[in-house]
């Protein structure tokens, strides 16, 4: 099965345009900040918003068409066989967990006894079988989310849409929920489109990632490529990496504002425009050495410090575009403070190189 969409839709004055697809057993992560259009895109796929132009198909079946010759097609949400799970479980408060999960099979015409048996099986699979007779108010947030996932899967969807499914969970519960989604991705073998603002969700679950900003797709492709070597400063900021543009030198390095860079990736011809990408946490601090000409080494004066869990992020006056993450233990050992002069190095294996013309 394949879920394919090439569409333009609208939520009030906000317009979203996107072309994407997800195959059997694949998670496509749709990543972007709040207000970028991720949930609007998901609503269109679910049939909750009409298309202005374009089409949506699932396993060759047309779910939506608009703006083309001929009569538009619009399949009702309940008939699309697409499951939708959001960050809020939205369980029926008056029904037990078992009856919540049995609702989907019952709506498809399955007998009450069989629907309850199927529901019990799904609750067991997701580790909440012991709570089958409890109502949502008697369940924790993580338990409710598991029941909601069981309800979505019990309906035997041909595709699954996840809208920030971990955003309302604590760290431990979110980790367990990601594991459950990974298990169901492999077991159910259906296309899954997962909207998230957290790159970790994409790294752990998605083989491909699409970046959305202001209703447009900024970049999409294999997750390792999209998050490992972004094409724009916006995507780089979202992925939490440094993206620097420079020019190829005679010895094959890339020069950016006086620093020479070497890494893995494309061979960079002399004079060619290229980019380098690396994680702030990959940079190592040491006492400043002012006379070195080696690649991936530079010196600078600490200008700003920002707190991070377990450490801090610093930038230098000479190269403010480069973010450097420093654990607290290293910061204490090196005496990190505004105005101090430090040296910085990064291993070539931690630097990704791309020729700009090949992007």
Automatic annotation (TrEMBL):
The protein, known as: ATP-binding cassette domain-containing protein
Domain of life according to the entry: Bacteria
Pfam families: ABC_tran
PROSITE patterns for the chain: ABC_TRANSPORTER_1, ABC_TRANSPORTER_2
Keyword list, A-Z: ATP-binding, Nucleotide-binding, Transport
SMART domains for the chain: AAA (SM00382)
Database matches in SUPFAM superfamilies: MOP-like, P-loop containing nucleoside triphosphate hydrolases
Organism of provenance: Microbacterium rhizosphaerae
A GO MF label: ATP binding
Segments forming domain ABC transporter: 1-239
